[in-house]
């Protein structure tokens, strides 16, 4: 009997290992599929850093967070419904019977909203952040600020992150107060040059569309047609919708019906296709993708500058009237926020650009959105204050010196900072690296303006005048015909 129980336990662990970590859904990946979500065993895990013999203390956390797992958007909901109906009307009754019992469960009124899995993601992320910087928030927790985009999923993510942080640090964090700032969190909205040159430019997505003509993709479309025995061929959009639907159904309803249509290898192929799209839409595929992120980069460094209090007494700030100092600034946006930010900072850049033809050689690529930009993905600069700091270059103590050093965390893990190609940099060196984003951020010049704004008063007047003249000509023509 005990042997049977042991076998059952081992089987359960093996099953969990197989289906519990599906980390290949590009930006539709839930956080726990790609990253560790365990609460840190030791409090203050990142609150101090050693520079030689000097112990430096965290004095500021500057974090940008993508919203948590959400419902499909309205466009996706409609597509899901139409695709399901198209399949069910034409598929062979004997083919893939699992789909016969599947029911459409999406509520249009809740399109794009944060879901329970997203709430848990943000709440737990807030608690883990509180644990890692417990000392900082225990002393200066009242100096925190929350900012989000106008979207409900971003505002709700900020609120639930605050809830997790507050629960962990009882009576140390003020009640939730959120500032809506689309200029930093949705800098791409209304950016004409971005919309014209990238978002609405078919040629910019040439590599993405070319990928659907490769044997790897075509074989997936053929496999779907064979499994479902339908008379039509699956389009590029159909295939990617089934891929995303697998993710939605998994984390929303724990339903694997649509997932059974795709093998693990096929999902990896489609992940690369989605990475191609994101690469050209939001990252290194076009220069403006990083340029337009300058308002956010500038805001982060301006905030960090203000956190560097000249008194150096961060333990006893008390009720000072220093409204500039923040122990932390937490900002909540979207994948279109965090991916351009990562690109502006020079993170996850491969030596070879992503192309439709190099899938087989890019399995170890840095730009893998399932890993770097899942739901609740996050990026944080942390500033540490050091007295009598050792030189990072020579490791010798500079007596009486005071300096600030910085670490960069992505998805709660330390990453190499491009500014110094190391885990720890002097703040000034990092700031110098990104000075063009800070000092030359002219978003109006970067985004430009639409040459002929259809909604402008002048164009409306011209349209009325043209319509009026056209009407008069038609009347004249009728009169001439009647004579």
Task: Give a description of the structure.
Helices cover 47% and strands 11% of the residues. The protein has 483 residues and is α/β, with parallel strands linked by helices. It has one domain (28-447): Phosphoglycerate mutase-like (Rossmann fold), CATH 3.40.50. Strands 1, 2, 3, 4, 5, 6, 7, 8 and 9 form a 9-stranded mixed beta sheet that branches. Strand 3, helix 6 (152-168) and strand 4 form a beta-alpha-beta unit.
Average pLDDT for all residues: 88
* Cα shape: globular
The number of helical segments is: 20
* Beginning-to-end CA distance, first to last residue: 106 Å
Major sheet, described briefly? Answer: 9 strands, mixed
Q: How many runs of DSSP E, i.e. beta strands?
A: 9
State the CATH architecture.
3-Layer(aba) Sandwich
The CATH H-level superfamily is Phosphoglycerate mutase-like
**Would you list the SSEs in sequence order as H and E?**
HHEEHHHEHEHHHHHHHHEHHEEEEHHHH
Number of domains: 1
* Structural class designation: alpha/beta
Helix amount: 40-55%
Using the coordinates shown, work out and report the CATH topology: Rossmann fold
Name the CATH class. Alpha Beta
pLDDT below 50 for ≥5 consecutive residues: which ranges? 4-21, 456-470
* Overall radius of gyration: 27 Å
**Per DSSP, what share of the residues sits in E-state strands of 2 or more residues?**
5-15%
């Amino acid at each position: 009997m005990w042997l049977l129980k042991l076998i059952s336990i081992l089987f359960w662990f093996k099953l969990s290992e197989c289906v519990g970590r599906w980390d290949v859904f590009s930006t539709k990946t839930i956080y726990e599929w790609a990253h560790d979500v365990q609460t840190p065993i030791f409090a203050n895990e990142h609150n101090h850093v050693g520079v030689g013999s000097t112990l430096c203390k965290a004095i500021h956390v500057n974090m940008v967070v993508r919203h948590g797992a959400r419902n499909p958007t309205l466009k996706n909901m409609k597509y899901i419904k139409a695709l399901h109906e198209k399949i069910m009307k034409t598929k062979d009754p004997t083919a893939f019977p699992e789909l016969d019992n599947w029911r459409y469960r999406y509520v249009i009124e809740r399109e794009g909203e944060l879901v329970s899995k997203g709430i848990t993601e943000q709440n737990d992320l807030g608690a883990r952040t509180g644990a890692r910087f417990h000392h900082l928030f225990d002393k200066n927790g009242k100096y925190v600020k929350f900012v989000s985009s106008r979207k409900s999923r971003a505002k709700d993510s900020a609120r639930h992150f605050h809830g997790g942080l507050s629960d962990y640090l009882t009576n140390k964090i003020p009640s939730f107060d959120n500032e809506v700032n689309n200029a930093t969190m949705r800098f791409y909205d209304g950016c004409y040059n971005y919309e014209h040159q990238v978002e609405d430019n078919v040629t910019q997505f040439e590599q993405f569309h070319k990928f659907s003509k490769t044997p790897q993709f075509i074989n997936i479309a053929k496999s779907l047609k064979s499994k479902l025995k339908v008379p039509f061929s699956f389009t590029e959009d159909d295939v990617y919708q089934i891929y995303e639907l697998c993710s939605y159904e998994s984390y929303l309803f724990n339903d694997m019906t649509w997932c059974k249509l795709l093998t693990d290898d096929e999902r990896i192929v489609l992940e690369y296709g989605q990475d191609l799209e994101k690469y050209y839409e939001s990252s290194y595929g076009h220069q403006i993708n990083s340029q337009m992120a300058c308002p956010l980069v500038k805001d982060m460094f301006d905030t960090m500058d203000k956190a560097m209090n000249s008194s150096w007494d961060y333990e006893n700030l008390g009720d000072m009237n220093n409204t500039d100092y923040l122990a932390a600034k937490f900002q909540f946006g979207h994948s279109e926020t965090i991916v351009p930010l990562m690109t502006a900072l020079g993170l996850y850049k491969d030596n070879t650009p992503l192309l439709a033809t190099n899938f087989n050689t890019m399995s170890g690529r840095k730009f893998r959105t399932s890993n770097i930009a899942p739901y609740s993905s996050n990026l944080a600069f942390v500033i540490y204050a050091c007295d009598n700091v050792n030189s990072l270059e020579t490791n010798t103590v500079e007596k009486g010196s005071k300096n600030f050093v910085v670490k960069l965390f992505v998805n709660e893990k330390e990453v190499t900072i491009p500014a110094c190609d190391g885990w720890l940099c002097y703040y000034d060196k990092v700031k110098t690296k990104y000075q063009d984003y800070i000092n030359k951020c002219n978003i109006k010049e970067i985004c430009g303006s639409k040459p002929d704004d259809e909604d402008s008063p002048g164009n409306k007047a011209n349209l009325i005048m043209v319509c009026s003249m056209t009407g008069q000509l038609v009347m004249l023509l009728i009169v001439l015909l009647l004579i």
